């Protein structure tokens, strides 16, 4: 891969290959909105066979840590504990959403002083980045995102490697997603999904999993229960 380059992963810290020459940007979202977004993401991919399942069922899986890439809180804390490492930046989705300009400059400064300096000296470049990374621009790629599974299956096939799965799931993997990959992109959509009891259960889960961590302080300025 040409350098410099970027690789997107969903791995927790202990499974992520690390290099002192690389820089790692961990973008995280509050557990309430993450649960809702993850639900819609899951039901949009035919291979999950979750299209007709209610939010209540996914919520149970989420708070029990039975979702892709493991328990949400274990994942969060694994990276949060390294937030002060020189080559790790932990930034929230909410931070980027509420003040994208400041968020982009923060990322640029992290990648190298010269990058942040350039954006401050050339505001037209910063404006171009803001436009390119905006929600409206990303939504414009939804039709392409729907073809992602078909392309991913082809790429895996080209590697000569196989992923154990039933013939039915293998066939579903080739089908395009049914919903939009980029959906609402808002803060607080959990209010349209969570019942009072689910709020109670999520708060209990948060208290249990983060009792020895300050990770939830990342959302001190966000309207959460």
TrEMBL record:
The keyword Translocase does not apply. It holds the Pfam family Sulfotransfer_1. Belongs to the sulfotransferase 1 family. This is Putative sulfotransferase. Keywords: Transferase. Coiled coil: none annotated. Residues 1-213 form the Sulfotransferase domain. The keyword Transmembrane does not apply. GO terms for molecular function: sulfotransferase activity. PANTHER family: SULFOTRANSFERASE SULT. It comes from the Eukaryota.
């Amino acid at each position: 891969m040409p350098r410099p380059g970027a690789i997107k992963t969903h791995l927790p810290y202990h499974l992520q290959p690390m290099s002192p020459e690389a820089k790692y940007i961990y973008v995280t979202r509050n557990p309430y909105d993450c649960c809702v977004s993850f639900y819609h993401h899951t039901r949009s991919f035919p291979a999950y066979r979750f299209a007709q399942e209610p939010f209540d069922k996914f919520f149970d899986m989420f708070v029990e840590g039975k979702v892709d890439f493991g328990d949400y809180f274990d994942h969060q804390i694994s990276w949060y504990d390294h937030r002060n490492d020189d080559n790790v930046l932990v930034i929230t989705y909410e931070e980027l959403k509420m003040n994208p300009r400041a968020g982009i400059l923060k990322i640029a400064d992290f990648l190298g002083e010269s990058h942040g300096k350039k954006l401050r000296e050339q505001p037209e470049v910063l404006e171009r980045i803001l436009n390119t990374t905006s929600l409206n621009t990303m939504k414009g790629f939804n039709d392409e995102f729907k073809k992602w599974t078909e392309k991913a299956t082809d790429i895996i096939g080209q590697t000569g490697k196989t992923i154990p799965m039933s013939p039915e799931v293998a066939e579903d993997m080739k089908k395009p997603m049914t919903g939009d990959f980029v959906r609402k992109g808002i803060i607080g959509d959990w209010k349209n999904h969570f019942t009072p009891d689910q709020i109670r259960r999520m708060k209990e889960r948060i208290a249990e999993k983060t009792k020895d961590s300050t990770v939830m302080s990342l959302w001190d300025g966000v309207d959460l229960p």
